Amino acid sequence: MEFIKSQSYEVHLEELAEAALRQHIAKSNYSKVFVLVDENTKKHCLPLFKKKLDIKADAIFEILSGEIHKTIETCSTVWSLLSDNGGDRKSLLINLGGGVLTDLGGFVASTFKRGIDFINIPTTLLSMVDASVGGKTGVDLGSLKNQIGVINQPQMVLVFPKFLNTLDSRQIVSGYAEMLKHGLIKDAEYWKSLKSENDFTDAKCIKKSIAIKNDVVTQDPTEQGIRKILNFGHTLGHAIESYCLENPDRETLLHGEAIAVGMILEGFLSHELKGLSKLSLQEIKDTFLTHFERVDFNAEDIKAIITLLKYDKKNSHGDVNFVLLQAIGKAVTDVKVPVDLFHKAFAYYKE
């Protein structure tokens, strides 16, 4: 399976990924090679990484998994580990993990010694189809998602679908949400085929999702225009994710679970403001509720979630900007939404 060219680097899949990494390290003359893992990837993925790639690491750094640890404090720990283990500007950091780890590891590498090389090896479906492309790195600010970070490209991204065998079904379905989003914003045929696909972890589906996101990102690397369409479902979805993260009485939602709710809500807004058909809206709602349990929100929850919208990264001049759909496969950006429609959207979600 050929590689996908993304801006200044390549995304390699399966067997070609092994050869690409070996060749890169052989020619790069790195002073040290470090690997960043969490407790899950250390147990389930690191042995396969060592077996398949036969790369000698000078040190392996372990952090705690989960969004709650995607903080500047964790970065400080890794910066110190790099420094204590003789890291310099010619070092390489390999990030072996899901989106939280690759986002954080990429940010750590981008800022240590004003920037060292890093390679991402995503181990979850979500990170393979989403975090693998685009160069977004960073951490959360408290419970607010991805408020601190930079856009900086890795040397390469290596995708091994075999890592998916280490995941539970909840993690797999979380990644499926982002794949469905790719169809909704850019490719109606992909949406149609994917929503009835039994094995969406197949390498061909993963490659298709990566290719869709890559096509968008290469047109707009710094998110000034079309790249914003990748945020469909994320404006309300991130607010929901943050609210559940900071509220001890709520179960924490995985990213894809929160975004699935966000896509139903923003689908409703699309119907109200941009002419998305009632039939398409119902199709979106039915598809997500087939795979994701409905989340219960009371009036106080909804009020708090709406308040969190003011922290969304796409905001400008005090306005909350949404990505909405004119039709399945066709998204529009920078849409202002009246506050009363948020409440109607949640009422539709509850129906």
TrEMBL record:
Keywords: Cobalt, Lyase, Metal-binding, NAD, Nucleotide-binding, Zinc. SUPFAM superfamilies: Dehydroquinate synthase-like. Its cofactor is NAD(+); Zn(2+); Co(2+). It comes from the Bacteria. Residues 175-315 form the 3-dehydroquinate synthase C-terminal domain. Gene3D superfamilies: 3.40.50.1970, Dehydroquinate synthase-like - alpha domain. Its EC number is 4.2.3.4. It is an enzyme of class 4 (lyase). InterPro entries: Dehydroquinate_synthase, DHQ_synth_AroB, DHQ_synth_fam, DHQS/DOIS_N, DHQS_C. GO terms for molecular function: 3-dehydroquinate synthase activity; metal ion binding; nucleotide binding. One of its GO terms (cellular component) is cytoplasm. The keyword NAD applies. Residues 62-172 form the 3-dehydroquinate synthase N-terminal domain. GO terms for biological process: aromatic amino acid family biosynthetic process; chorismate biosynthetic process. Signal peptide: none annotated. Catalyzes the conversion of 3-deoxy-D-arabino-heptulosonate 7-phosphate (DAHP) to dehydroquinate (DHQ). This is 3-dehydroquinate synthase. It comes from Flagellimonas eckloniae.
